[in-house]
Amino acid sequence: MRSDNFRTKFIINPYSANGSTREAWSRIQEILRRDLEKIDFSFTVAADHATTLSRQALHKGYEMIVAVGGDGTVNEVINGFFESGSLINPNAVLGMVPRGTGCDFVKTLGISRDTAAVSKILCGRTVKKCDVGHFTCSDGRGGNLERYFINIADFGIGGETVERVNRTTKVFGGFVSFLYGAVSTLLTYKSKRVKVQVDETFAEEMLINNVVIANGQYFGGGMWVAPKARVDDGLFDILIIKHTSRIQSLTSIPKLYKGTHVNHPSVTYMRGKTVTAESSDVVLLDVEGEQVGRLPARFDIVPAAINVKIGEDHERLRIS
Fold this sequence. Notes:
Number of domains: 2
Number of strands: 16
Shape: globular
CATH architecture of the largest domain: Sandwich
Order of helices and strands: EHHEHEHEEEHHEEEHHEEEHEEEEH
Strand content: 25-35%
Structural class: alpha+beta
Strand order of the largest sheet: 9-11-10-14-16-15
GO molecular function: ATP binding; kinase activity
Keywords: ATP-binding, Kinase, Nucleotide-binding, Transferase
Protein name: Diacylglycerol kinase family lipid kinase
Distance between the termini: 30 Å
Helix content: 25-40%
CATH topology of the largest domain: Tumour Suppressor Smad4
Radius of gyration: 19 Å
Domain DAGKc: 3-140
Number of helices: 10
């Protein structure tokens, strides 16, 4: 055990990993206790509860909040770092124990899903400054939503896909669940007419299949959607995937996992700090694997906003 660790709070989504995390937590604790002096933890009981628990823990003086779950749990915890538009503690640290369907953000950072390896990463005080995204959108009921994200947001077919995936069982894991969701959604999806603006450099109204606003590189259970994205460059990587036929879309799915889709003529790839989008169609948003809200929406990058816990070995990796 080490004495130079952060004062840590674990926030556990017991429903993550297709509901297996609650039962697995005792085993996970045993592994964590090999490296950490004390395990303070709370289980979530409802949607957005992780945000409340994260915020409460930071007000109580915890230095690191560890999300135990998938990308959706990480998203909720990140939102708890903010209150009234500002960070509660700019020095606070995000840690992660990946337990979820996708767990895509950790892929960009090169963090293993092996609990013993993650336990080592949580030791010490080596962190990486990461950008986050801030967005506002319609809640579909006449109001607005305002939230933060650290990995990827998208709208179009992505929003409809995660809505379908989250209505079904995820027992077969992230890859199969999201692949099934993507293929089945493609069979019925109708392209949306959307006006997209990026900074002051791009503005166009077009038929789109999907628009991706990326801080990390992966989404959808391992799709390498933004292979050039960096978590600390102060910019989004933005992919506009214009309307293509169903056959073209279906045959392009393998390219999404390899990152070669960026060379397709229907894909526009750019970088920017602000993205706005509006449409007369109903266009759903996907944020960190959860369907939240719809257009109109605005996305802004918040540079170097969050300290993310990485291990000493990971500091030497090229993850920026």
